[in-house]
Every structure is written in C-alpha cells, then in structure tokens.
Amino acid sequence: MNIASLGEFGLIGRIAERVSTKDGVRCGIGDDAAALEPAAGSVQLVTSDMLLEGVHFDLAYTPPELLGRKSLAVNLSDMAAMGGKARWFLLSLGLPAATDVTFLDRFVSGMLEMAGLYGVALVGGDTCASKSGLVISITLIGEQLPNRVVYRSGAKPGDLICVTGTLGDSALGLAELRQGKRDGVAVARHLDPVPRCSEGLMLAEAGIPSAMIDLSDGLLADLGHILEGSGAGARFEISKIPCSPHFSEHAAKLGADPLPLALSGGEDYELLFTAAPECWPDIEKLFAGAPSQVTVIGEITAAGGIQAVLPSGERYLPDSEGFRHF
Amino acid sequence: MNIASLGEFGLIGRIAERVSTKDGVRCGIGDDAAALEPAAGSVQLVTSDMLLEGVHFDLAYTPPELLGRKSLAVNLSDMAAMGGKARWFLLSLGLPAATDVTFLDRFVSGMLEMAGLYGVALVGGDTCASKSGLVISITLIGEQLPNRVVYRSGAKPGDLICVTGTLGDSALGLAELRQGKRDGVAVARHLDPVPRCSEGLMLAEAGIPSAMIDLSDGLLADLGHILEGSGAGARFEISKIPCSPHFSEHAAKLGADPLPLALSGGEDYELLFTAAPECWPDIEKLFAGAPSQVTVIGEITAAGGIQAVLPSGERYLPDSEGFRHF
After folding, report:
1. Nearest CA to B284 among B193, B202, B194?
2. Mean pLDDT of chain A
3. Chain B stretch 116-145, residues whose beta carbon is closer than 8 A to a beta carbon of chain A
4. A62 burial level (CB within 10 Å; 0-12, 13-18, 19+)
5. What is the rounded distance in angstroms from the CA atom of residue A7 to the CA atom of residue A137?
6. Per UniProt, where does substrate bind (chains A, B) (predicted)?
7. Residue of B nearest to A230 (CA)
8. Sheet harboring A271-275: ordered strands across?
C-alpha cells in the first residue's frame, strides 16, 4: 500500500497513534499548533534541520529506520551543543505519493525509537505530497536555565580545546558506502550517529564550557564558527586529533588522505568545546562515567585564525575547510 | 549572482543582517539553537508548515515577495486559530544552487515585512542546497495563557458556527491564475492571504470560542476536523456562507460551480469558530473594530456529521470535501 491510498489524515493518524503522551504536552498532534508547558525559569532552545533526498541522504544505502534515527539525531546534537535538555519535536514530511507505507512505518519506528532513548516527544508537524523526493524537516525544542546555556561566543585565549569521541569515522563511512561497502564501524557512524546529549548536558550543568558546538561541518569549519563567534584564534596539534582504531586502519586502505577526512569530513556529531585549563580535572571526572571519551587537542589564542600544527612542527594548510552546501 | 557563489554562510549572513533584535530573544540566528525567553505562566504554541515548489506554489505566477509573505502567513493563521500571540519563527530553506540572489532578497523582504507587521522575529532555521526546486519549512512559536488557548475539541451542541471574512476568493484566484489572469481581488487573496491574528487573539482573550480552526483545507474539511475533535455534528445554511461581491460576480463567469469553491476550495485562511449563542452580542461588539467581518452560518448539533442545507431545504451533497495531498 502506498501513501496516496492512505491519504493525508490516514498518514497523520498512523503516526499519531504510535506516539505516547509525554511530560509537558498539553496538546500534541492533531490541532493547529502544539501546546507545550515550559519549565518555569528556563530558556527555550529551538533548532531546525532540513534533510533532502539526494543531498543529505541516499535511499540506495540508507535503511528507513536509520534515516528516521539520524534525522532526529542531528537535531539532538544541536541541542547537546547548547547544553540543553531536549523535550519536544515537530516533524514535517514531504513524501512522494508512491512512497510505500512500509517505508513510512520503518522510518517512524526508527525516529520514535530515538525519541524514546532521548526522552523527547513528537508533538506536531506537517505532511504533504512531494513531487521530487523525500523531504524531512525537524524542529526540536529543549530547555536549560539561562546561566547554563552554552553559546559559540564565549571562548577565551588560554582555554583548552576539547573534543568528544573520535573524528573522521563518518566521512570514512560515507566514502566506504560510495564504494559499495554496507557495514562496519565507519558505515555505522555515518548512517547512525550518536548525539552527545548526556555529555553536552553534564558539561553545561557543571558550568564548564566557555563555548560549544557540534561537529557537523568538520573540525576546521566548526572550530572556525567558535572563533568567529568569540573573536579569537586557535592552535591545535594534528597528532592529538582522536581517531578510532578502525579509522587509522581503513582510511589509508581506502586510498584516501586520512587528514582531510578527520579535519573536514563532517557529520561526526561529536562536541567541540572550550574550557578554562583549571576545569580539566573536573572534565576528566565527568567523562569517567560518560559514553564517550574526551581529548584536549589545543588551545584558544588571542588571534591568528586556526593554526593546525603537524608533528614536524610545520603548519598544516588544508585544501578545504569543510562541507559546503553551495 | 546566484546562491552558489554566495555560499551557505554568505547566505545566512545576508538574511541575518536584515533581522532586527526582538523581545525575548537571548540568542537568534548564528548558534546551534535559538535561545528564547517565554512569558512566565504561558503555554508555548508551536506550529510548522512546509511549502514545496510545484505542490504549494508555482513560481511562474508567484512573485518572490508574496511567496515570502504567504509562507509566514499560513503559519500565523495556525497560531491565530489557537488564540495565540505569535512571537518567533525559524525558517528552513532548500534552495537550488542556481537560485538568483535577487530572488532570495525579494523572498526575504516579503517575509520580514510580514514578520514586522505581526511582531514576530526570525530567530533561526537551516539552509541547504536542493536538487529539486525550492523547499520552505517554517516553524512558528507563540504563546497564550493556559486557560485562553482554543482547541478544536470544545464545540458543544447548540454552539453557533461562525466564520470571519469571506470564503472562496482564494480558490477562485487560483483558478484565475491558472487561466492566465495575474491581478484582481481573488488573485490577491490567493497569493497574499491575510492571517486573522488580531481576530483570533481578541476572541481567545475574551474567552469566547469553544473551538477554533483556520480554513486552510476548505470549510467542509475544516469543520469536519472540529466535529471530529469535539465528537459533534453540524448544520449550516449554504445561503449564509459569506462571499465577496467579487466572488459572486466572477465565479460563475469563470464557468466554475461557485459552491465547491466556497465550501471546499481551501486556502481561505479565515477563522472558523464555535461559541455559545449567548456570546453573540460580545462577538458582534468585538468585530465592530476588527479588520474582518464575522458571520454565523449554522450551529453545532449532537451528531449527524455535516448537514449543509440548500435554500430549497434540501441537503447539499458535495463531490469533494477539500484539498487532498495524496
């Protein structure tokens, strides 16, 4: 059965019946707007990401469940980067009329599974016919106390530059997928990224990061955003970039230069944050119980753009700074 | 110059520099999420609408400024239907790389003009390349006191069924546009709808409507949503449907049956609300100073679906109930 025979309201009903009610939802799917109850004294954090077929994902190698998971994960990652607690989301879908209902069900299953894991509720959105591929737009709403929200603009000279997890796996996975590989650590990192929600939240609630961003465009580009926001420069050592054993082994095999993958490949969905050096013991303590590791790769400087230093002591000059949409 | 030569961050900067700061915006465009300060004690109302080229709009006859205005207007209309005060919005844009910057500038001008008129601030969103036409997704956030929010579910037998403005003009305008006409009252109603924000807000704040919805899918379909939400039926008289003089004159000329246009044409963006009969004097008083008229077309019944009564006393049986996406 395809979407066309289900009809718009059949489609909405099919999604709505799978959503369980959540905290703070006075009215969810099925009215002109959702009615939500924010926590008293909190700032509301709102982020949107749009994913287009043929641009952000390729259905030839993306299982619908993972597409559902990833569509929400990329928004959760933005929320993590603000230090926010994600609460609710809206899903707008443009669907080709020939879309099979099984595809929709699997997509929604993945998304709602991810929503359950991170404690967020689907509260509304929009559905419409698309004449040109699948269109996904998600808006995620979260909250945090005003003095605990972390922006891109607070990095200060002398601050440590820290990253969670490992970099480059996702870009390697995409390259592998394009070469026909369908499994492995890197492919999983690309198709099913893990947003660093607990890490972002615990850092923010401990008041540690002076600035934070999620690594979606690649380390060089996203560090650049922090520097631009903070009016500062940065110096880091290439040898300190955390890479997975899988990455170190397979990137070279692929015939690709591993450095651009790790520095500019994008879609790592790790957190990049800066913090005063005296915070380091607290950071180590926090990450002792965290799902991901944390690594110091360099420090914020007063100016001078980004200096990426090779083991030889020379400055690394990248060809590209990150994914560019246009 | 096209979007590709501007680049993603050039594009975001070009939009951001035209946005003036607004109330309650702690952080707007340019971070991972917007940080907003809700009014204490309010419920947050959140609505999303997606507009796809070739489905919701045709660039052959839609000036970019009006597309910008309408994209926001349809969201403002949803907010009006909840009785909410619109405050902030996020704009996600999928743009073909060849899009001319002039098109973007004109689109943004129209949208920000509309935003200024209704006191809402652009606070974030997403931009990406689209390989298949223009994609617009807007999320609008507003607020209202919990006991003043109006849902679809409160209509009770005996309540009056009221509509603002006139119906059918937009559908007539669309038919005219498709026949090559480019101006006139109906074309303007289709390309540049006026959301009934002040009407929705004043009704809600006076505590008058038992249920409310905006007429986007057509009177029959949208009244159906209220009845479904409220577990009730409705009876109304076809002769009482408010139509503009332009509509009465031109619908027949067009060779179209005017009744389906007024009942099921959709995109009127008027408000349909129900209210206890004893509220009528207050409703009349409120609308004495309002931009639009208000008309009682019938009443809510205990059950029986929708009975649309013709002047002959016979029941009108529509071919179609409203716009269907699939």
Report:
1. B202
2. 94
3. 123-133, 135, 137, 139-142
4. middle
5. 20
6. 56, 267, 323
7. B31
8. A211-214, A271-275, A160-164, A294-301, A233-237, A306-309, A315-316
Tell me the chain B residues in contact with residue A153 when contact means C-beta distances shorter than 8 Å: 31
The CATH number that domain A160-315 falls under is 3.90.650.10
What is the C-alpha separation between B300 and B224, in angstroms, rounded?
Answer: 11
Q: Is A98 helix (H, G, I), strand (E, B) or coil?
A: coil
Domain B160-316 has CATH 3.90.650.10: yes
- What are A223-279's pLDDT values in tens digits? 999 999 999 999 999 999 999 999 989 998 887 788 889 999 999 999 999 999 999
Identify the CATH assignment for B3-148 out of 3.30.1330.10, 3.40.190.170, 3.40.50.150, 1.25.40.10.
3.30.1330.10
**ipTM of the shown complex:** 0.95
SS3 state at B123: strand
**What are the boundaries of each domain within chain B?**
3-148, 160-316
Distances (CA, A) of B230 to A19, A151, B212, B274: 21, 44, 11, 11
Annotated ligand binding at A301? The verdict is: no
% residues pLDDT > 70 (chain A): 98
Cβ atoms of residues A62 and A55 within 8 Å? no
Residues of A in contact with B5 (CB under 8 A): 326
**Per-residue pLDDT tens over the stretch A188-207:** 999 999 999 999 999 999 99
Contact A131 B55 (CB under 8 A): yes
Nearest to A24 by CA among A121, A145, A139, A146: A121
Q: Is A78 annotated as a binding residue?
A: yes
In B199-258, the residues whose Cβ lies within 8 Å of chain A are 213-214, 229
Tokens at A154, concatenated = 């607070």
Q: Which two tokens stand for residue B65?
A: 């400024």
